[in-house]
């Protein structure tokens, strides 16, 4: 897998986790579709920024391991600063899939 394919896969894996937690609560966050579209169009940096902004705007939690995956992907793009904008209150422990608002 190419470096960009690896980055894309990491971003999409985080989106999958966020979507699963939202679906478990009966919510569909259409903005996450835009993140997928950005990845598909080779706009990984913008996808990361949009994912972080979407998580903050909708109060979407990320597990700690997902945050690390996103940070690693962003680091490979020299774009890690964007991930630091995630509200720290949205970070869940690695094994926690609950979503409390």
Describe the structure.
- With 101 residues, this protein is mainly alpha-helical.
- 59% of the residues lie in helices and 4% in strands.
- The chain has a two-stranded parallel sheet.
- The model has no long low-confidence stretch (mean pLDDT 90).
- The radius of gyration is 12 Å and the shape is globular.
Give the structure's gist in a few sentences:
The protein is mainly alpha-helical and 101 residues long. It has 4 helices and 2 strands; from the N terminus they run H-H-H-E-H-E. The model has no long low-confidence stretch (mean pLDDT 90).
Blueprint (SSEs and pairs):
Layout (H helix, E strand, L loop, with lengths): L2 H22 L6 H10 L3 H15 L3 E2 H13 L14 E2 L9
Parallel strand pairs: 1-2
Helix pairs in contact: 1-2, 1-3, 1-4, 2-3
Using the alpha-carbon principal axes, give the shape: globular
Fraction of residues in β-strands: under 5%
The mean pLDDT is 90
Radius of gyration equals 12 Å
Feature tags:
single chain; 101 residues; 4 helices; globular
């Amino acid at each position: 897998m190419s470096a960009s394919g690896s980055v894309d896969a990491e971003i999409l894996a985080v989106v999958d986790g966020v979507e699963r937690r939202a679906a478990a609560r009966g919510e569909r966050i259409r903005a996450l579709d835009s993140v997928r579209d950005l990845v598909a169009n080779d706009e990984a940096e913008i996808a990361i920024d949009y994912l972080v902004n979407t998580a903050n705007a909708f109060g979407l939690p990320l597990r700690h391991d997902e945050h690390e995956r996103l940070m690693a992907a962003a680091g490979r793009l020299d774009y890690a600063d964007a991930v630091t904008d995630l509200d720290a209150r949205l970070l869940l422990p690695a094994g926690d899939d609950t979503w409390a608002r």
